[in-house]
Amino acid sequence: MQKRPIQRGRPAGATTFEAEPARAFGETVRALRSEHGVAQEALAHLAGVERSHMGKVERGEHMPTLALILKIARALGCSSAELMAETERRLAASES
User: Fold this and answer.
1) Dihedral, 53, 15, 89, 92 alpha carbons, nearest 10
2) Residue 38 and residue 14: Cα distance in Å, rounded?
3) What pTM does this model have?
4) Tell me: the pLDDT tens digits for 16-47?
């Protein structure tokens, strides 16, 4: 039996994007940013990403990587655990 070659990337038709967690995370980021009185552009600068990318994260159009979650948490002055705990609360509330 011959081994199949390893192919990079996701298999055709596979997705890793789930809208609900992305939306909940974005709402959390927007709420904390507003709470701190920080403009979206300033937060994006502090996190080291483009403002348009931060907008996509806040709107739930982009699922951030772990590295980006850590950068956003640092920029908001909180831990990634706090950021994710609030995201989980929002997810649970939307499921109720």
Assistant:
1) 140
2) 37
3) 0.81
4) 678 899 999 999 999 999 999 999 999 999 99
Residue 74 to residue 93: CA distance in whole angstroms: 25
Three-class DSSP labels, 3-62: CCCCCCCCCCCCCCCCHHHHHHHHHHHHHHHHHHCCCHHHHHHHHCCCHHHHHHHHCCCC
The CA dihedral of 79, 47, 21, 28, to the nearest 10 degrees, is 60
Separation between Cα atoms, residue 26 and residue 20, nearest integer Å: 10
The amino acid sitting at 9 is: G
